[in-house]
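Quick start: read one record
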Amino acid sequence: MATVVLFHSVYGLRSLERDAAERLRAAGHQVFTPDLYTGKVARSIEEGFELKEAIGWSTLCQRAEKAVAALPGSAVLGGFSMGAGVSAHLWPKRPQMAGMLLLQGLAEIPDNARRGLPVQIHLADPDRFAPREEVEAWQAVAARSSIAAEIFKYSGAGHLYIDPTLPDHDAAAAELTWSRVIGFLAAL
């Protein structure tokens, strides 16, 4: 059983994160879904970016640090889109984490990344928020840092393809993602 923290996308904490947490709990994991927007939820991606900017990145990161403070250092960090960036902020501060799970987003690899750290990434292909050049550059850094990175790309899926409430949704890609995520967590 893993302890997992899933940070929400720019939309805020919604059914996507709650349903994901329930799915992972059913697989035997302990899952936390911090609400970095303190109850606010965007109705569109544009509104989500406005919320993010109004709150401020440093405040969101402080809230994330507070949310994980009492959790074991081995907790898996994860996030959806913007939540991947939040996980990236925490990565260098949690060197004992068991793994990193990034859904629809990349996370900058810190200099102190632990050799062999399991990292699993799921991206749409193409994805306007993770262009091919950025993904290739990330893969090169990952190879040099010796983390154990797996990147799965889902052709034809939209950015937040995993979210059944959005037009990007791709049911087959979402199911394959969850199957891979559950296998990843079980291996930790």
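The CA atoms of residues 148 and 164 lie 30 Å apart.
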